[in-house]
Write a structure and sequence with these properties.
Layout: H1 4-33, E1 67-68, E2 95-99, E3 105-107, E4 112-113, E5 116-120, E6 136-138, E7 143-150, E8 156-163, E9 169-178, E10 187-188, E11 193-197, E12 206-211, H2 225-228, E13 240-241, E14 256-257, H3 259-266
Length: about 270
């Protein structure tokens, strides 16, 4: 029996598989370099239970004094600042999803951090690179999980809604986590473990946000640098803000809250 047609068919199939895999890899690299999100909710979130009122808040990594942001001159010598609302020189000139008025890309080091990155600290207050990997991440208050998203090599992202005693809600969002033990729609309590810090080698840390909105896919109004670019695309948000107009460049303008200041005021 002539097996040549079968062999040709197998080779053609293998070629198509390799081609598709290659295209997926190229798309993933391009998306990562340009901060185009690859994770989102495919369908609108169903109605979840109303959270119980959050009467107290606490920090996601315990004990709080063992974790904190990298601040040049305080937690190490590098030109790094991962506090809320800070610009980070160490991020370099690689592009992000923001576009200036000319349509040009905005260097990463000009963006404003919309959360706080918590690293492990030693007894002197210096960052222990990689020390946060595998550390349990706790819910900062009673609430309901509203999303768990897969961010690929960046780990996973968990969002929790918290009902405030005076009315309204705030949302805690935890980036770069692994092995989540909660699911969307699940009620959680203050201090409950929800995941662990994702292993990103020396850069292992928890990016933690407190904000007044759930869905970050349209937070940048028309005419802003985020709306001109590709930032308005997915529920988790992009973790940074920026604009040509300084009055609307800071995360406060878009509904983010300083996580450390908020929890300190509500413990």
């Amino acid at each position: 029996m002539d097996t040549a047609p079968q062999e040709q068919g197998c080779r053609r199939t293998l070629f198509l598989i390799a081609l598709v895999a290659g295209l997926c890899l190229v798309a993933s690299v391009y998306a990562w370099e340009h901060n185009i999100p690859l994770f989102r909710l495919s369908t609108p979130a169903p109605p979840y239970p109303t959270p119980s009122v959050a009467v107290a808040f606490d920090f996601p990594l315990q004990p709080p004094g063992a974790y904190g942001p990298y601040v040049q001159g305080l937690t190490g010598p590098l030109a790094v600042d991962t506090r809320y609302g800070a610009q980070n020189p160490a991020q370099g000139n690689r592009p992000n999803c923001f576009r200036d008025v000319t349509g040009g890309t905005v260097p990463f080091n000009q963006l404003y951090h919309a959360g706080v990155d918590l690293f492990a600290l030693d007894e002197t207050g210096n960052v222990v690179w990689g020390g946060a990997s595998g550390i349990p991440v706790h819910a900062v208050a009673d609430g309901v999980v509203v999303f768990v998203l897969d961010a690929g090599r960046e780990g996973e992202i968990v969002g929790i809604e918290h009902l405030l005693a005076g009315g309204g809600s705030v949302y805690s969002v935890y980036w770069h986590v692994a092995r989540p033990v909660v699911r969307a729609g699940q009620s959680v309590t203050l201090g409950q473990p929800i995941a662990v810090v994702h292993d990103m080698g020396l850069n292992s840390h928890l990016h933690w946000e407190m904000r007044t909105f759930l869905d970050g896919s349209r937070i940048f109004p028309a005419g802003t640098a985020g709306a001109r670019g590709t930032c308005n695309r997915q529920i988790a948000g992009v973790g940074y803000t920026w604009d040509d107009d300084p009055a609307r460049a800071h995360p406060d303008y878009y509904g983010y809250l300083d996580p450390i200041a908020f929890v300190t005021a509500h413990r």
